[in-house]
Amino acid sequence: MTSKTSCNNSISYRKYILENVKQRIWFMVLSFITLFFMQTVSITMRIENFLNSSAEQPLNSYREQFPRMLNGSLARPFTVIILLLAVICAVSGYAYLHQPEKSDFFHGFPLKRIQWFNISYIGGLLMFLIPYLSSSLCTMVIAASKGVLVSSNFLPSVLAVFGGILGYLILYHTAILAMMLTGRLLSGTLAAFVLIVYYSMAEELFSGLFSTFYDTLYTPRHGERSLLIDSLSNILSPLDLYQSLTYRTAANYKLPLFLLFAIAVIAGIWLLACYLYQKRSLESAGNALAFQKSASVIKILIAIPGALFFGFFADSFYYNTGNKWIIFFSILAVILLCGIIEFIYTQDLRQIFKRKTSSLISIIGVVGILTVMQLDLFGYDTWLPKKSDIKSMALYSDSYLNYFDYVNNDFESSESYYLLQDDDAQTKKFDLLYQLAEEGISNHNMGMHFDNLYENSMYDPVDYTGITVRFNKTNGKSVYRSYVVKCGSLLNTLDELCQEESYRRKLFPAFYITGDEIETVILYDIRFDTPLKLTGEEKENLLKAYQQDLLQVDIHKLQEDNPIGSFAFQLKSNEIPSDMFTSHTDDYIRTITNLYLFDTYENTLKLLEEYGYSICTEINPEDVLQMTYTRLPSVDYNSSADISLKDTSSVPVTDPEEIRRLLDRTVYSLQRIAGGWNTETDYIEVWLKGETLSRHYSLLPKE
Amino acid sequence: MIELINVTKTFQNTCAVHDVSAVIQEGMIFGLVGSNGAGKSTLLRLISGILKPESGTVIIDDIPVFEQPKAKRKLCFLSDASTFLPNATAESMCRYYALNYQNFDRTYFNKLTEKFDIPQNQKLQTFSKGRKKQITLLLGLCAGTKYLFCDETFDGLDPVMRQTFKSLFASELMKRDFTPIISSHNLRELEDICDTVGLLHKGKLLFTKDLDSMKCNINKIQCVIPDHAKEAELLSQLSILQYEKSGSLLTITVRGSRDEILKRTMEKEPIFAEILPLSLEEIFISETEVAGYDFKDFLQ
């Protein structure tokens, strides 16, 4: 008897779900069409394009990327589509809760609330899953027929689809939760988007606030975030969790525990939504919020970050006029926002000053946050740990940005990445580095920071450079700060750090290259760009010689002398750039440039000579066909006074003597390892005999 | 039997139903009367298990109704707004009601829609308001539930249709165990269909009474008594609810049986005396005034 009843119940359940699907069949059609175009058609086109344009060699790499293409972790538009589908599905599924008549209609029938919840939930889920799985299957069949999906990437692809489904679930559940919390369709839809992006937006906002108000702030990249922050971000930000799910399942990156965690979060949101459905009063249909008691809390949670965001936005609109305006706009915005939120709640202009306490808390919150930041009440910018609390330190200078070209084909790896993150770059002999940090704080206290480095007339910007310091504390935490310091101080510190061979190996990009990956070597000097015709062994020997010179060079030499030339190494790459949609297939050959050469690099120069190459260190005036001279108005070198020019104008130089004098002031490069040379100097444009294109040379100041 | 025990429901700061206790017996048509905002719809939604009372309980055949499908299977709620599924037709609504109510009589529904000339496959959203009401009522009637709650469902029907549905209700009452509860702010609509009427005012149920006994106990008499002394004597002898004198014509609403009132009037040797029919509205005026309310507050 019991089994018969349960059988009947399950049949009815099926019928109810079927009815639900019938009522919203348009959503299923919408899902089919969008997913078919965004997934199947789009990926097929990309595969066709790839097969038609690329060589056979990177196919394996392309196959590795296929799972990420499949679940859209590489494509932002796909994420947007999934987000929209999840919100539409949840809103259409529970819209009846926001319409008093429909709510009465459904709840008048002999079903429990939990059953209604489940019917809409399962109906909505099926209407996404069927199109999604069909589209994924279709894509996989096409990819298999084109040879992109093979046995080696089949399981990762299936896992990626599974990750896509979990990702959808997190967004779908969040949107359902928003529908449970609200009583009007518009507020429900808005709440869904707010809940999905709230944490990500708030994180971005506060990161923006910090970088605006704190001059010494350095934000580690995503890969450097702590596990706690990562977990918190995943719990509080459905969008982050969605992206992590699709990325990690496609890349099979630290999965089992993360999947359990994601499933727990998904289940948690589902349970909360389910609970709220049973607790919400049906008469809340038509009100902005289903739970009136939450009105004040929600108001505060929206008004504070909203006002700060508006402050930023308005300030940027008025050309970033400064912190004072951010404060003004934020306070104005919080008052407006409190009124607007109350109007949304009550739909009555006379009620916009209702719930005065929450309005007051919001205003105090905004003023408090801005006061703390503006006055740096917690001493963020002047913070310096005790030496005894530091285990090791690391250093990165902004001057490296132009001086070095690191092997960098991963978006998480920037120039600063190696030097701040790698174990070999962490030094335990940090006395000078500590002093450098102290100098940075002292400079900050004098009003010197990176943003106003070139605006402040109190000091010569050419003498200063920006640095980032990492403090590895004995308690295991790492703290980063950015300072402005004198180039000389940086150079002394670098000199000390480079006493250790391991540090040099981390500092110079040449040590990231292995001999067997070199495709071509190009030699640049003041006159010629010469691709070197070398055998594999010769290339390897040249690299070794160059590395040897780098290990021996006096760091002061790199600052005080001008390079006489440089190498560019073209490397064969086994990896596809992570952002496949913006990279051309040519990017599979990576080029490392700015490997500077100095006249003291005996090993390298000797080997070059042995291979039949020499470095030209000056331009013969007789080789010059034509020359123009350009003076930059910001640079006030006395040398320009003897040439009568109008500011910023380019004038032709025809006098042989003048040509000779200008060529004497020409060097291959003005770049310095510790910064300090203003590269925005007067320059000449030269047309040389036998060359079709002109060359530009920066000029040294006249002695 | 439906029992309401101290049922209270508040919407934000407004008390829609306040401490209502009542018993609605089976096998009769119960009318729920009250002005707009009196709490009729809220009370019906509470009885239907749609809303959860803040305090008190609604019990249907010994089962609390809220979140109890077993109890809710015995009732069908028809709201004042005819609500259907998106893009529904009469046929699809019939199927949906059959899914919800095991005793839904599809044959009867098809027969009635044919009689009412309602196309089975035309989208209901294209129908007029009255036509939608007809379908709603037909669905409710054919649901086969013991209790049918109609929240102002008769509003919007033309007089012919109203009579037709009253006949259908009567016919259902004859055929099976059926107890319709009809709410309306219009007393005249309920007058000739309800057996018992409850009056709701500002969330409070003032009384529930059997209409026949109410009609028997209150009468209106019109008479002309030439002797002023006898006229005054008559007025003092009767339990007067309302009194009006136009010239020498007396019109009085009196509590008591028709025969007794007529006998006392005739004793005063009137030139003319006649018992007039009383409308439900007039009865209510009298009853509510007795209860200490001014009936003008109740009806708009």
Helix content of chain A: 40-55%
Could you give the distance between the termini of chain A? 106 Å
SSE pattern of chain B, N- to C-terminal: EEEHEEHEHHHEHEHEEHEHEEHEH
Structural class of chain B: alpha/beta
Which parts of chain B are unreliable, with pLDDT below 50 for 5 consecutive residues or more?
Answer: none
Q: Strand order within the widest sheet of chain A?
A: 5-4-6-7
List low-confidence stretches of chain A: 1-7, 576-587, 635-646
Let me know the number of strands of chain A.
Answer: 11
Shape of chain B: elongated
Could you tell me how far the N terminus lies from the C terminus of chain B, measured between alpha carbons in angstroms? 32 Å
Overall pLDDT of chain A, averaged?
84
How would you portray this structure in words?
The complex is a heterodimer of chains A (703) and B (300). Chain A is α+β, with helices and mostly antiparallel strands and 703 residues long. Helix content of chain A is 54%, strand content 11%. In chain A, the strands form 3 sheets. Chain A has a 4-stranded antiparallel beta sheet with strand order 5-4-6-7, with helices on one face. A 4-stranded antiparallel beta sheet of chain A has the order 9-8-10-11, with no helix packed on it. Chain A has a 3-stranded antiparallel beta sheet with strand order 1-2-3, sandwiched between helices. In chain A, strand 4 and strand 5 form a beta hairpin. Chain A is globular. Chain B starts with a strand and ends in a 10-residue tail after the last helix. Chain B has 300 residues and is α/β, with parallel strands linked by helices. In chain B, helix 3 runs antiparallel to helix 4. In chain B, a hairpin with a 2-residue loop joins strand 4 and strand 5. The mean pLDDT of chain B is 87. Chain B is elongated. In chain B, the strands form 3 sheets. In chain B, strands 6-7-8-3-9-10 form a 6-stranded mixed beta sheet, sandwiched between helices. Chain B has a 4-stranded antiparallel beta sheet with strand order 2-1-4-5. In chain B, strands 12-13-11-14 form a 4-stranded antiparallel beta sheet, with helices on both faces. At the A-B interface, helix 1 and helix 5 of A face helix 2 and helix 3 of B.
